[in-house]
Amino acid sequence: MKNQGAQIILALDVDTIEEAKGFVDTLYPKIKIFKVGSHLFTTYGPKIVEMLHKSGADIFLDLKYYDIPNTIAQSTAAATRLRVKMLTLHISGGHEMIKAAVEAAARQAEVSGLARPLLIGVTVLTSQKAGQREVLKLAQLGLACGLDGVVCSVHEAAVLRNKIKENFLIVTPGIRVDNSIKDDQRRTATASQAVKAGSNFLVIGRPILKADNPITKTEELLGDLYGAGN
């Protein structure tokens, strides 16, 4: 799969909706997709999604669903009604759970006349140690059940591209400007490394959120990204 269309997703890992809106107002449309995780969504619920829609941005709802199939089906249908572009669920939830999510998203999209969100399976969290065989097995399971792609670190992305021949998306968190800065994530990489490994979406948080000038840092990362893709 070509990676020249790879995109940055800004992780809105902030405490308030006002902070989130500030980053969106500053960086959209340089960045078009923003990640809403469990912290922000637990605090503000659909209100944070509505704010992003009003700005024109797309939403990556990163709640990592993991529950019994019926509950996951209801949650996925609800996310579809929220018109999010992408959402995550744990592949380790198993075949029945994943199938329930895939079917619920398709059914809700058809009933509501909405686009179906991209369903992205979490393999192993980047804060954890993982073997490539484990990540490959989970990725193969998720894709066989109808997921659109997977979340994995850059260290597994190249392996998945080599081993899995079908067309699928790779979302890579843990992107850093300097690979020596890891914070709480073990498996990090630069934007250019992720693109070369085969990632389609690069999730970036702290390097932009903590930058003295978020616009300048975003432009630097975009330069690294598109320079690597050419």
CATH topology: TIM Barrel
Beta-strand content bin: 15-25%
Distance between the termini: 14 Å
Shape: globular
Total domain modules: 1
What is the arithmetic mean of pLDDT? 91
N-to-C order of helices and strands: EHEHHEHEHEHEHEHEHH
Q: What this model shows, in words?
A:
The chain is an alpha/beta fold. It has one domain: TIM Barrel, CATH 3.20.20.70. The chain contains ten helices and eight strands. Strands 1-2-3-4-5-6-7-8 form an eight-stranded parallel barrel, surrounded by six helices. Helix 8 runs parallel beside helix 10. It is globular, with a radius of gyration of 17 Å. It starts with 6 loop residues before the first strand and ends with a helix. The model has no long low-confidence stretch (mean pLDDT 91).
Summarize the structure.
Helices cover 47% and strands 17% of the residues.
Secondary-structure blueprint:
Elements: E1 7-11, H1 17-27, E2 33-37, H2 38-44, H3 46-55, E3 58-65, H4 69-81, E4 86-90, H5 95-112, E5 118-122, H6 132-144, E6 149-151, H7 154-163, E7 169-172, H8 191-197, E8 201-204, H9 206-209, H10 214-229
Parallel strand pairs: 1-2, 1-8, 2-3, 3-4, 4-5, 5-6, 6-7, 7-8
